[in-house]
Design goal:
- The protein starts with a helix and ends in a 6-residue tail after the last helix.
- Strands 1-2 form a two-stranded antiparallel sheet. It has a two-stranded antiparallel ribbon with strand order 3-4.
- It is built from 24 helices and 4 strands.
- About 65% of the residues lie in helices and about 5% in strands.
- The chain is mostly helical and about 650 residues long.
């Protein structure tokens, strides 16, 4: 610990002389972290972060609800990008507050992604990059001004000494040149610190020599020569700023308290218990029962459903176990209760926990509709070129343009054939009027018996063209109908779950898309009006599945654990976990109107209170399963 404090002190010492007060920014950063971890949030920035995190969860919730989880973008945005939207929307009072907030988003990103905060993760964070990009631009502009001052002083063009250790090297005398030292260098102390870099000083010496030679050759452009050389040197100010950026990232890694999760050690303990069980079979039932009791308690009160590996492990093991149980079911002699239990478990998985969650209806989320995440949702649902709407519309347009070109080619062949017949005297006149007519030369040798093979040869190529055209056109129309049905289905889902504002904006987008960008599809506007926009009036509330809610998911996992234990092992072993399941399921049922929704693994959970109907099937199934285990344990040998 003392070594860490000493290293941080050594890293901070040179930075205390900068205009950008790194120590103050780090102190504020740690204050934000501690306040956020405590849950008692008072800082205005953290208050906005909390509200915006809810908007982020709602954005991902609605995106998954409408479009599903498939993201077809080539470069899928990471969590730092989404948090960066909060960073860019907040008004900061100082650079220190801005840097502290950028660092906080690095910490928050690592916390939500369940990763340890490391220096390279800080360096890659979008908010941190944005801060130092702005800082670099400002300092680079001021560096050009300071370096112009240093060059002018070393050339002897001003007696105003710059605030760095530098001496005059030349004495140029230009009567028409007057240098006015700058007075608005807000980052002067930063620049003087960066000036200590030997590379910067070496480049400035070379720049002074070049400026001296250029001014002697062309004294009329003295300002241009000085500014050009100053700008050339200022480009290398990026290197010490990048070093500063890396130092800050390293300090954040050392200062941020790491929360370690040691719960994985329970699996080591479980393995040791299994070794003991195999060694001493007499304690098998009680040992395995204790393990399952502890794991049931963990699943109810300590399980983190947003943990990627833990969730994957539980899901794989328990649901594979359920599949094996179904496969072994025909071989069991007494299976009525098992069949009923499996049927109830499957129904609990299929039927939603909350069929209509009115509180999460989009039209009730007014603050979300005014957030940046609403614009992001809209862009990903239908505006972006990689959205499903754009994808299907491009396919429909491509199909229709291909049909257009092929149809024009067939008509060209027909016209060419008629023109050829006209040149041979078969057709004498064609009238293209509302009452069109074609006049033939009936005495033409073309109609004679001896010319039958010539007639066949004349129309055979046209017959092939028409046959292939009809086959291709039917295939295109089938493909068009398939894509149109998919687009209409997706659009109906979008409109059904959308707030009136999103519906209106989507309708306007469709009208612009078909009338301006893809006019060949303009006749689809009527179809959209009739099948999409006129059929949806009320906003459809979303449904909540059992595995989307924190506590119902825990009940489901413990329920599967108890069922599989009783199925493959013994009711005696599953008795202890059954008691935990009974208590936990009743408690979860009583609190089922308090929803803690798992949106995505890297998203904050979405909390909501609902007065909507909650399907009790899962909790009743849990109670039924406990009753089955008790019945099996205390029955007197009869087959069930």
């Amino acid at each position: 610990m003392l070594r860490r404090i000493f290293l941080v002190f050594v890293l901070l010492l040179p930075l205390t002389f900068l205009a950008l007060q790194i120590p103050d920014a780090l102190e504020l950063y740690l204050k934000l972290v501690r306040e956020y971890e405590s849950g008692s949030i008072q800082h205005p920035f953290l208050i906005q972060v909390e509200e915006s995190l809810r908007h982020l969860s709602l954005y991902r919730f609605y995106r998954f609800l409408i479009a599903g989880s498939v993201d077809k973008r080539e470069a899928t945005p990471d969590l730092g990008y989404y948090l960066g939207l909060i960073y860019s929307s907040y008004s900061f009072e100082s650079e220190e507050e801005q840097l502290a907030s950028a660092l906080f988003f690095s910490y928050l990103s690592s916390k939500l992604s369940k990763a340890r905060l490391a220096a390279d993760q800080v360096m890659k964070n979008a908010s941190f990059i944005d801060f130092f990009t702005r800082y670099r631009d400002v300092v680079s502009r001021e560096a050009r001004t300071l370096f112009s001052w240093i060059i002018a002083y070393q050339l002897g063009l001003t007696d105003e000494r710059p605030p760095v250790n530098v001496e005059q090297r030349f004495q140029l005398e230009l009567s028409d040149y007057v240098f006015t030292p700058p007075s608005d260098l807000k980052h002067l102390s930063d620049l003087t610190q960066f000036y200590q870099d030997p590379n910067i000083q070496a480049m400035l010496d070379q720049a002074v020599n070049r400026a001296f030679e250029n001014i002697q050759r062309d004294p009329a452009r003295v300002v241009a020569h000085i500014n050009r050389e100053a700008a050339f040197v200022a480009r290398d100010i990026v290197k010490p700023i990048t070093s500063l950026q890396a130092n800050v990232a390293q300090m954040v890694q050392k200062l941020t308290p790491n929360t370690r999760n040691y719960w994985w050690l329970r699996f080591v303990v479980y393995a040791l218990v299994l070794v003991v069980v195999f060694r001493y079979p007499k304690i098998r039932n009680i040992a395995l029962s204790c393990v399952l009791i502890f794991e049931s308690v963990y699943l109810f009160f300590l399980f983190n459903p947003t943990s990627r590996y833990e969730s994957m492990a539980y899901g794989s093991v328990l649901f594979l176990g359920l599949m094996f149980a179904v496969l072994r079911l025909p071989k069991r002699r007494s299976k009525l209760l098992e069949i009923v239990s499996i049927a109830l478990i499957l129904l609990s998985l299929i039927l939603p926990l909350v069929p209509r969650c009115e509180e999460l209806s989009m039209d009730r989320q007014e603050s979300f509709l005014e957030s940046k995440y609403y614009d992001l949702l809209k862009r990903e649902l239908y505006v972006d070129e990689l959205s499903r709407v754009a994808h299907y519309v491009r396919r429909l347009s491509s199909t229709m343009y291909t049909s257009l070109e092929d149809t024009k080619a067939v008509i060209d062949d027909l016209v060419e054939r008629i023109g050829d017949l006209n040149s041979k005297g078969v057709i004498t006149e064609i009238l293209l009027t509302p009452r069109h007519a074609v006049f033939f030369n009936d005495r033409s040798n073309f109609f004679s018996y001896s010319n039958a093979s010539a007639r066949l040869g004349e129309f055979q190529p046209l017959s092939n063209v028409l046959r292939f055209y009809l086959l291709d056109e039917k295939s295109r129309m089938r493909s068009f109908k398939k894509d149109l049905d998919a687009l209409l289905k997706y659009s109906k889902r979008l409109v059904n779950y959308s707030a009136p504002r999103l519906r209106d904006e989507f309708k306007q987008h469709v009208q612009d898309l078909f009338s301006m960008k893809y006019p060949i599809l303009s006749d689809l506007l009527t179809t959209f009006d009739q099948e999409v926009f006129q059929t949806s009036e009320e906003v459809r509330p979303p449904h909540i599945n059992v595995f989307n809610n924190r506590y119902s998911l825990s009940v489901l996992l413990v329920l599967l654990l108890v069922f599989l234990t009783g199925f493959f092992l013994s009711p005696k072993i599953s008795l202890g976990p059954s008691v935990i399941l009974l208590v936990g399921s009743i408690w979860a049922w009583l609190n089922s109107h308090e929803l803690i929704l798992i949106v995505e693994q890297t998203s904050p959970v979405l909390r909501s209170q609902t007065d909507s109907f909650v399907n009790p099937l899962l909790f009743l199934t849990a109670i039924f399963l406990v009753a089955v285990n008790v019945f099996k344990l205390f029955r007197r040998g009869e087959s069930v």
